[in-house]
Amino acid sequence: MKEEIVIGTRDSQLAMWQARWVLEKLQGLYPQKKFVLKGMKTRGDHILDVALAKIGDKGLFTKELEVALLNGEIDLAVHSMKDLPTSLPEDLTIGAICPREFPGDVLISRSGLTLDKLPPGARIGTSSLRRTAQLLHYRPDFNVITIRGNLTTRLRKLEELNLDAIILAYAGIHRLGHDERITQLIPFDICLPAAGQGSIAIEIRASDSSMQELIRPLDDPSSRAAIIAERALMRKLEGGCQVPVGTLGQIQQGQLFLEGVVASLDGRQLVRKNISGPPDQAEKIGEELAMQLIEMGAGEILNKARQEFDLQ
């Protein structure tokens, strides 16, 4: 195996933190090897004035890294798991799903008020249709404002746009050391996270068995089972940034529990269900829950949501 291993990553502050975490873990395991980071910008980093759902999400934050991987410019690509499309290029695979941080969302409120205490018509910033739909289901009076940019930019927009609050993933806030900004961990019964939220994915060339062995110690079986189920559900629903779908898998007492939610853009329609089964059946569990949600009306809700968003 080569002595210098190149780790590719987006060059945002959070992405670099995640890639450095992987580098430090690998360096500790293999002190004789040299690991270097290569940061790059993706299409999603360049387009900051358009909602994610408007520009599509197929590899929005990953494609450039995947091209570099296929071309041999890098040996590993480190991603936020939730950024990875549910279908990967044929010659690539997820070599490791790292131990998951708390997967939920957090509220950062200027007044220190929680979701239930915010005033009528409160202005809430988010870039996610998933969060928007679930928030409006909980509080139809909220005025949801679309904000884009990296984590630091969105924290700044809280003040610049005179918002009452913004919603972000806990993992990013925690990893960059902003825990003191958190007003509330949003309960899962109000807002389920995105598939894979809170975990770091390491993508490799499918044929690179030596790299697979190298990163195997960073793979967490419980996180992998939960996230495989979540991604299978999303794949079956054809979900992504354009559709309001939330899902959460958790391993409890040796069983995999999976919950999913699909909501209309205005939050008025919502279907939600959970099922459980053995962790080694994760993909099957995800697909089964997706089918049950479709039988409950998720298909019609998603079709309507896509049409509505295309008309906006």
UniProtKB/TrEMBL annotation:
Pathway: Porphyrin-containing compound metabolism; chlorophyll biosynthesis; Porphyrin-containing compound metabolism; protoporphyrin-IX biosynthesis; coproporphyrinogen-III from 5-aminolevulinate: step 2/4. One of its GO terms (cellular component) is cytoplasm. The keyword Repressor does not apply. Residues 5-212 form the Porphobilinogen deaminase N-terminal domain. It catalyses: 4 porphobilinogen + H2O = hydroxymethylbilane + 4 NH4(+). Binds 1 dipyrromethane group covalently. SUPFAM superfamilies: Periplasmic binding protein-like II (SSF53850), Porphobilinogen deaminase (hydroxymethylbilane synthase), C-terminal domain (SSF54782). One of its GO terms (biological process) is protoporphyrinogen IX biosynthetic process. The keyword Methyltransferase does not apply. It is an enzyme of class 2 (transferase). The modification S-(dipyrrolylmethanemethyl)cysteine is found at residue 241. CDD domains: PBP2_EcHMBS_like. HAMAP family: Porphobil_deam. The porphobilinogen subunits are added to the dipyrromethane group. Tetrapolymerization of the monopyrrole PBG into the hydroxymethylbilane pre-uroporphyrinogen in several discrete steps. Belongs to the HMBS family. This is Porphobilinogen deaminase. The lineage of its organism: Bacteria, Bacillati, Bacillota, Clostridia, Eubacteriales.
